[in-house]
């Protein structure tokens, strides 16, 4: 699975794996792909520095990258004022806080212990937090910086390029992709409707060739609904120079979900058991459908808040749901490919399956093409 982009980065397979878990990112790189660590869960720069140090020591000298979240549009304060987390928290209406309390009470979700901090915070959606993450990242040998919500600010792109770091951005339409090209982005990730997390409304099969044509000659990675070798082959046939995979790593043995109940739900889920909902962050994000997403999507409720208000509003609630494994409410961002995730496997086994399936798909197409040439 070699492409011009994979050769440029010095990786064996054009498989880019996004994950919030350092052990998974390292294993992807060691397996010949390109591990990309998600930074959004890091609230303290020292924690990110610790895990990047660990990656440096456990990737076997193979390249890896970092994914940050710097929203193009967020809640803004008065002119020239930098909003703190407390400022943003103060904007959350009491009606929404009451809705969270009532939903948790209806499902008998226990409180956190006194003095126990929420372990799930979305402060990484705030630009100033993302910038502190970048200060840490640029002290490490990352080869790729990806932004999940639009093009990073121009000064961030310039700083990355000064350090010979490629910059990638996700796009849900050809229009978004053209904006990335104009902003100096090096790689566009075509994020299809099927993907886990934040997605647009265009399916990968349609979106990928549209973006390839829109940003030519920039390399494009296909994302969404890809979890097998034949699907990788289809993406490359559509003009992509690699694939961007996130969901398939959630049920690997290296993943640190720390929730047997959530792992069981993922392994049992079908491809129709996800929903695009604003319940988690305020922007449409594909995730497991649960009683929590149903409550927020119910027209009788108060509706979700814009990013980052929604993420801050539900942070403690999500921590409580996860800690006590309240199964009706328990979920996670994941794509429609979850229907293929039926067993726990190592990262290496997933990569081996991808490469083997890719080779079989290419052989099949070659046989078809050969017969067509003889007819």
The number of distinct structural domains comes to 2
What radius of gyration results from the CA coordinates? 20 Å
Count of DSSP-assigned helices: 14
Residue share in helix: 40-55%
N-C termini distance? 29 Å
Order of helices and strands: HEHEHEHHHEHEHEEHEHEHEEHHH
Biggest sheet features: 8 strands, parallel, barrel
Q: Output the CATH class name of the largest domain.
A: Alpha Beta
CATH architecture of the largest domain: Alpha-Beta Barrel
- Under CATH, the homologous superfamily of the largest domain reads Aldolase class I
EC number: 1.13.12.-
GO molecular function, one term: oxidoreductase activity
Enzyme class: oxidoreductase
Organism: Streptomyces cinerochromogenes
Question: How would you portray this structure in words?
Answer:
- Pfam families: NMO.
- Keywords: Flavoprotein, FMN, Oxidoreductase.
- GO terms for molecular function: oxidoreductase activity.
- It is an enzyme of class 1 (oxidoreductase).
- InterPro entries: Aldolase_TIM, NMO.
- With 375 residues, the protein is α/β, with parallel strands linked by helices.
- The protein has 2 domains: 1-74 and 126-256, Alpha-Beta Barrel (TIM Barrel); 75-119 and 259-344, no CATH class.
- Helix content is 42%, strand content 13%.
- It has an 8-stranded parallel beta barrel, surrounded by 6 helices. A 3-stranded antiparallel β-sheet has the order 7-11-10, covered by helices on one side.
- Helix 2 (22-30) runs parallel beside helix 3.
- The chain is globular, with a radius of gyration of 20 Å.
- The two termini are 29 Å apart.
- The model has no long low-confidence stretch (mean pLDDT 92).
């Amino acid at each position: 699975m070699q492409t011009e982009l994979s050769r440029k980065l010095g990786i064996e397979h054009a498989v880019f794996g996004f994950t919030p878990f350092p052990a998974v990112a390292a294993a992807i790189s060691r397996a010949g792909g390109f591990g990309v660590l998600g930074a959004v869960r890091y609230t303290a720069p020292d924690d990110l520095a610790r895990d990047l140090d660990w990656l440096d020591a456990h990737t076997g000298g193979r390249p890896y990258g970092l994914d940050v979240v710097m929203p193009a549009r967020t809640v803004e304060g008065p002119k020239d004022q930098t909003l703190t987390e407390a400022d943003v928290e103060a904007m959350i209406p009491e009606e929404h806080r009451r809705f969270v309390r009532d939903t948790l009470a209806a499902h008998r979700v226990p409180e956190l212990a006194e003095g126990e901090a929420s372990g799930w915070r979305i402060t990484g959606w705030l630009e100033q937090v993302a910038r502190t993450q970048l200060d840490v990242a640029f002290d490490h040998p990352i080869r790729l910086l990806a932004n999940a919500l639009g093009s990073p600010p121009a000064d961030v792109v310039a700083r990355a390029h000064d350090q010979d770091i490629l910059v990638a951005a996700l796009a849900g339409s050809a229009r978004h992709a053209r904006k990335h090209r104009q902003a100096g982005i090096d790689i566009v990730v075509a994020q299809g409707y099927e993907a886990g997390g934040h997605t647009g409304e265009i399916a990968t099969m349609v979106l990928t060739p549209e973006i390839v044509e829109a940003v030519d000659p920039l390399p494009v990675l296909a994302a969404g609904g890809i979890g097998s070798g034949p699907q990788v082959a289809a993406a490359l046939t559509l003009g992509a120079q690699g694939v961007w995979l996130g969901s398939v790593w959630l049920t690997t043995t290296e993943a640190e979900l720390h929730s047997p109940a959530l792992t069981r739900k993922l392994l049992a889920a079908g491809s129709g058991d996800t929903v695009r909902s604003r319940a988690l962050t305020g922007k449409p994000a594909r995730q497991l459908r649960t009683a929590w997403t149903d409550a927020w999507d119910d027209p009788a409720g108060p509706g979700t808040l814009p990013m980052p208000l929604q993420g801050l509003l539900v942070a403690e609630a999500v921590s409580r749901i996860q800690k006590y494994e309240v199964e009706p409410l328990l979920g996670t961002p994941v794509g429609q490919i979850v229907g293929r995730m039926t067993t726990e496997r190592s990262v290496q086994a997933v990569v081996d399956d991808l490469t083997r399936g890719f080779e079989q798909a290419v052989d099949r197409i070659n046989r078809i093409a050969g017969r067509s040439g003889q007819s």
